[in-house]
Amino acid sequence: MADVTITVNGVTFRVPAGTNVVDAARIGGISIPVFCYHPRMKPVGMCRMCLVQVGTPRLDPATRQPMLGEDGRPVIAMMPKLQTGCTTPVSEGMVINTESDEVQFAQKGVLEFLLTSHPLDCPVCDKGGECPLQNLTMAWGPGNSRFDYNDKVHFEKPVHLGDLILLDRERCILCARCVRFQDELADDPVLGFDNRGRNWMIISKSDPPFDSKFSGNTTDICPVGALTSADFRFKARVWELSSKPVVCTLCPVGCNLSLDMRYDQLMRVMPRENGAVNDIWICDKGRFGHRFIEHESRLTTPLIRKGGHLVEASWDEALALVAEKLAAVQSSRGGSAIAGLASPRLSNEDLYLFQKLFREYFGSHNLDHMPGSAADVDYDEHGALMGVGKGTNLMEMGAESLVLVIGADPEEEAPLYVLRLRAMLERGAKLVVANMRPTKLDRSATTRLYYQPGSELAFVRGLLRAVFDRVGHERLHLKHSGLEQLRKTLSDLSVEQAAELCGVPAETIRAVAQALLEAKQGLIMYGAEARSAGAGMSESLGVLAALTGKVGKPGSGLIALLPGGNSRGALDMGVRPDARPGYAVLSQRGLGAREVWPALREGRVKAVWIAGLDPAAQLPAARAALEAADFVVVQELFLTATAKLADVVLPAASVAEREGTYTNAERRVQRSRQARQAHGEARPDWQIIQGVAQHLSELSVPVAVPTQRVEESSQPVGGKGKSKGPGKTTAVTVAEPSTWDYLTPSEIAAEIAERVPGYAGITYSALAATGQGGDWGRQTNEAIFYDGTNYENSEGIGIQLPNLIEGQKTAVSLGLRPLSKPAHERSLLLVSQSLAYDGDLLLRGSLLERQIPQPYVALSQTDADKLNIKPGDTVRLDSAAGELTLSARVVDDVPAGVALIPANLPNFSAAAVQTGPRTRVNLVKVVTG
Amino acid sequence: MIGQLLKGLRTTFGYIFTQPVTVQYPEVKRPVRERFRGRHELKRFADGKERCIGCSLCAAACPADAILVVPAENTPDHQVSYGERYAATYEINMLRCIFCGYCEDACPTNAIVLEHQYELSFYDRRDSIYTKEMLLVPEDQGHGDAPPILTQLERRPSPPAQIDL
Ligand code: SF4
Ligand code: SF4
Ligand code: SF4
Ligand code: SF4
Ligand code: FES
């Protein structure tokens, strides 16, 4: 936008047109105090704190030119009254005065009025020390009050707005920032005003109260201590805290957090600005869900099973035992009798070393990062292969971009994406949400569509066909193979046929295809429900991105929402049975978690090492297998159900007690720092793995691998086993036997940068760059107005990886697997719904635990009527695998033909009925008595 | 020569007949001035409620970082002080303290006061940390009435900062 020239307090400078007076003055280094204005929200002019004198050049009515005075300068017509700076846009030649007596009188007046009903309990107020009201009163306010203290109104305090947020009505200055945040940014319009005059107050309108996944952010932006969090209430004064930069590992967004510590104790979690990831926000899961770090049930010492009991042991003892037992298995049965499962919440360094140990020492590819339930979905390749291009920044995207969200519920799977996508919409982006059932994001969508349950693949094929019909492959600027096959697959299914299969009208499919083609930038985000349709889904979405030219450039590509904070890292690091780090396919695959359980029971696998996963809690099969296993090592934070079955339990350090890097859904690698001392004797996972390796080398176990140098092509898995292009066989350097003497995780990161394709250049020093982390907290006196909001990012904003196509110029296989005909032997499709507040161990000890639901099965009204089921009835689900009894809910949002159960609840497992990621079930009411 | 010696000792001899200024500590203890800054006490109101509201301002003012306050929330059935907040932990490390009295100045409720006790010695450095139990005056030795605004317990308003207690 063009610039305009303005004069503030006699200083003339240029600012972008359309800026409001407050921001414009700040560009010139002049501060105008504000309360209700917030740069991320529309101005409303409620508090009158920003009053300034504004004048514009007087125009000659005849010529429309500015009239010139005798001195040859334009004549300025000052507005008769003071104007609110936050709602006044600048115009050419505008003259602003922020310091005149009149303005100062107004500023003092506004503050004096605000303080008439203010309790002045700064000494006990959680905002004290970072309170804009304190700051502005010191800088602009009157020195004393003429108001009699005893005339102040007093209200009962505090009022619970919800489980997590408390309101102190006496302190509220009614700026509506909280209300506007919920309405505009979070789209959870759960707050509102009630009453008027002195009784004007904020209330929660929802049931349950303050029902939002973003409620904690209102405590940040509240300019006073009116909103405080139950989590931090009266824990400490803010000046006692030291902020430690970490990365949230609770979901694939990877928000930048500040752990505010007093000495070694976690007091609260605050957002740390990162324009490319979380802006200045975090979700409630990240904010309140980090109490596990200090939970009293954390493991503190290694445990060894002696005579049926787990007894405390020293690290040396435990590591030596692990090495000895694993070496024994290896020498008697070979390395393939050892399996390793590592959680996707571990850091890249841990995961890399884990697979390295297995592949190098044991020569075993029996690796996985999933628990091995029937419901585990296929490894997601295309999120990396065709992932968003390097340089993608949602913060900078808006007009001319389109986001297709398919089979995902970002609010539950990766909450912060809701805020990011809504901010994009605000800037003019289009949002197409396609799901089998309504989700909250629908409210924001420009186009929302629902396909028949289980028909997402048909829907995407319809889109593909519509795209292909329009542009063929002219936008395909990638090295590719299998075009002929694609042409043939697509010709088998017309848009109309697809429309019929998926229940979305053909015109709509064509319109979405058209919109995707027209958009300059296109993101395709898919989540758990899409991935449960199988690898064919991400493959088809990848081809869709390729055909529409939405790949390999900034602002375009796929975003896969995977479970856990670092699933992408686990895939990149090759913690899977069929590929080495960097998606280099193995010619001979090992056993995945799902195959490990039967193999353990049959004795083909003897020993298993589980880092951070708890399969025994969910899977009876895993429990039986672990009981049958010869040797089980578990490396965990807590004594989980799995750990209780272990022969050796090793206490691991949590994310707060160690350094590491994590790769988020947009393939941004971010560095997390150590925030506190080790918990008891707990050690970082990489150290534990290294410790075992060192003991192994003392036992002089022959290193298994480096016999074949290049055993695989680096071609990423495309259409598996079909029509692969020649694929460049770049040398995947097989590690030389290494000495296992890493001193710090940064040394491992350096090795990853060297060895893992795509991670080149990702070193700790490079990750510390702060580049364009955003501009928060760097402007004139910003802290004064937005104190207590979030922290400036001084510790690095991370580096986005190139997707594999950009990075390696590998050929993409366009061949698609054929649509399989779903079998309909049972009436309902069992869909497990990922919830933000589920049985994740990491929520232990947090206030969110109360919000974890009891197990249930949700049905549509139609099905409930058909089966004569009422809410609360006990029902029995049966599938090809088994039976399960649950209480029923009848929910409007569930489409007919679907039985929805929450995934991953504590003390509940649907494993009894699941036959795969998708299960067909029958449902009957259980009549008791 | 003798004359010079006597001249030199004149002052000495003169003092032989005056009262000595030294006292036989520890049998005798010298009274201290009213504003002497000795060991701290945590005060109470006359009704026994603790004055400290757990605001940590003393800790913030302390130049020696000698004070640790860990606050907690009052509940209707566990009302330790007036208002919403009290100090669950209050510790002063007497080895760090330089007895400057800034904590006393900073306290909005006159809860922490440097009193006249100066006999602070310990065999173990750990013992130099005086806990809340050690610092708090007995329940019946409070003074002053809480201002009416603080006693309206059903509304649990917080103590105001600027009222002189
Ligand atoms: S909101 Fe600010 S001014 Fe008001 S009591 Fe709290 S710290 Fe003091
Ligand atoms: S609670 Fe805070 S953010 Fe909300 S209106 Fe009151 S002062 Fe503003
Ligand atoms: S959105 Fe995800 S990464 Fe961000 S704070 Fe929430 S759980 Fe953590
Ligand atoms: S007297 Fe001075 S040094 Fe001692 S605790 Fe108080 S403020 Fe700190
Ligand atoms: S009226 Fe402008 S900041 Fe409130």
TrEMBL record, chain A:
Localization in the cell: Membrane
Region (Disordered): 708-730
Keywords: 2Fe-2S, 4Fe-4S, Iron, Iron-sulfur, Membrane, Metal-binding, NAD, Quinone, Translocase
Spans through the membrane: none
GO molecular function annotations of the record: 2 iron, 2 sulfur cluster binding; 4 iron, 4 sulfur cluster binding; metal ion binding; molybdopterin cofactor binding; NADH dehydrogenase (ubiquinone) activity; NADH dehydrogenase activity; quinone binding
Protein EC: 7.1.1.-
Domain 4Fe-4S His(Cys)3-ligated-type residue range list: 102-141
Cofactor(s) of this protein: [4Fe-4S] cluster; [2Fe-2S] cluster
Gene Ontology annotations of biological process type: ATP synthesis coupled electron transport
Residue ranges annotated for the 2Fe-2S ferredoxin-type domain, each copy included: 2-102
One cellular component (GO) term of this entry: membrane
Cited Gene3D superfamilies: 2.40.40.20, 3.10.20.740, 3.30.70.20, 3.40.50.740, ADC-like domains, Dimethylsulfoxide Reductase, domain 2
UniProt xrefs under CDD domains: fer2
This protein's record includes keyword Iron-sulfur: yes
Keyword Nuclease set for record: no
Cross-referenced InterPro entries: 2Fe-2S_ferredoxin-like_sf (IPR036010), 2Fe-2S_ferredoxin-type (IPR001041), Asp_de-COase-like_dom_sf (IPR009010), MoPterin_dinucl-bd_dom (IPR006657), Mopterin_OxRdtase (IPR006656), Mopterin_OxRdtase_4Fe-4S_dom (IPR006963), Mopterin_OxRdtase_prok_CS (IPR006655), NADH_UbQ_OxRdtase_75kDa_su_CS (IPR000283)
Class of enzymatic activity (EC top level): translocase
Pfam families: Fer2_4, Fer4_NDSU1, Fer4_Nqo3, Molybdopterin, Molydop_binding, NADH-G_4Fe-4S_3
Leader peptide range in chain numbering: none
Free-text cofactor note: Binds 1 [2Fe-2S] cluster per subunit.
Catalytic activity: a quinone + NADH + 5 H(+)(in) = a quinol + NAD(+) + 4 H(+)(out)
Described function: NDH-1 shuttles electrons from NADH, via FMN and iron-sulfur (Fe-S) centers, to quinones in the respiratory chain. Couples the redox reaction to proton translocation (for every two electrons transferred, four hydrogen ions are translocated across the cytoplasmic membrane), and thus conserves the redox energy in a proton gradient.
UniProt-listed PANTHER family: NADH-QUINONE OXIDOREDUCTASE SUBUNIT G (PTHR43105:SF12), RESPIRATORY NITRATE REDUCTASE (PTHR43105)
Sequence similarity: Belongs to the complex I 75 kDa subunit family.
Name assigned to this protein: NADH-quinone oxidoreductase
Record organism: Candidatus Chloroploca asiatica
From TrEMBL, chain B:
Binding site for [4Fe-4S] cluster 1: 52, 55, 58, 107
Assigned EC number: 7.1.1.-
Sequence ranges assigned to domain 4Fe-4S ferredoxin-type in this UniProt record: 42-72, 88-117
Signal sequence residues: none
GO cellular component: plasma membrane
Molecular function (Gene Ontology), one example: iron ion binding
InterPro entries (alphabetical): 4Fe4S_Fe-S-bd, 4Fe4S_Fe_S_CS, NADH_quinone_OxRdtase_chainI
Cofactor note: Binds 2 [4Fe-4S] clusters per subunit.
GO biological process, one term: aerobic respiration
Catalyzed reactions: a quinone + NADH + 5 H(+)(in) = a quinol + NAD(+) + 4 H(+)(out)
DNA-binding in keyword set: no
Cofactors that this protein relies on: [4Fe-4S] cluster
Subcellular location: Cell membrane
Sites where the protein binds [4Fe-4S] cluster 2: 62, 97, 100, 103
Principal localisation: membrane
Alphabetized PROSITE patterns for the sequence: 4FE4S_FER_1, 4FE4S_FER_2
Keywords, in A-Z order: 4Fe-4S, Cell membrane, Iron, Iron-sulfur, Membrane, Metal-binding, NAD, Quinone, Translocase, Ubiquinone
Superkingdom as given in the UniProt entry: Bacteria
Membrane topology note: Peripheral membrane protein
Region (Disordered): 139-165
Annotated family: Belongs to the complex I 23 kDa subunit family.
Quaternary structure annotation from Swiss-Prot or TrEMBL: NDH-1 is composed of 14 different subunits. Subunits NuoA, H, J, K, L, M, N constitute the membrane sector of the complex.
Name under which the protein is recorded: NADH-quinone oxidoreductase subunit I
Organism of provenance: Candidatus Chloroploca asiatica
Gene that produces this protein: nuoI
